[in-house]
Write a structure and sequence with these properties.
Largest sheet: 7 strands, mixed
Distance between the termini: 40 Å
Shape: globular
Mean pLDDT: 96
Radius of gyration: 14 Å
Order of helices and strands: EEEEEEEEEEE
């Protein structure tokens, strides 16, 4: 089973940018969809952005025009470029991979904290 490792989180001020990375333990060419989710304290985990293996991307309404998801298959990595960050973007961000190999695999990374505060 593929393993995912996130990096790039941190503490930033409102209006700043951050770029998260999610590196897989093997090729992502056969992974049907990779996405970023987030969970703030007291809230349910929610989808932020997802990208298919044909590079179709979808975003939550709250991040459209501010966040961009991309994938680099040569590096087995998916990125989330986050611009114009707001305090309400504060959460733990998780990488997710979904792929079929005999059955549906639904794999999560360990998460990376993003805090947007003055």
């Amino acid at each position: 089973q593929v393993q995912l490792v996130e990096s790039g989180g941190g503490l930033v001020q409102p209006g700043s940018s951050l770029k998260l990375s999610c590196t897989a333990s093997r090729s992502i060419l056969d992974i049907n969809a990779m996405g970023w989710y987030r969970q703030a304290p007291g809230n349910k985990r929610e989808l932020v952005a997802v990208i298919s293996n044909s590079d179709d991307a979808n975003y939550a309404d709250s991040v459209k025009s501010r966040f961009t998801i991309s994938r680099d298959s040569a590096k087995n990595t998916v990125y989330l470029q986050m611009n114009r960050l707001r305090p309400e973007d504060t959460a733990v961000y998780y990488c997710n991979a979904k792929y079929y190999r005999d059955y549906l695999h639904d794999v999560w990374g360990q998460g990376t904290q993003v805090t947007v505060s003055i």
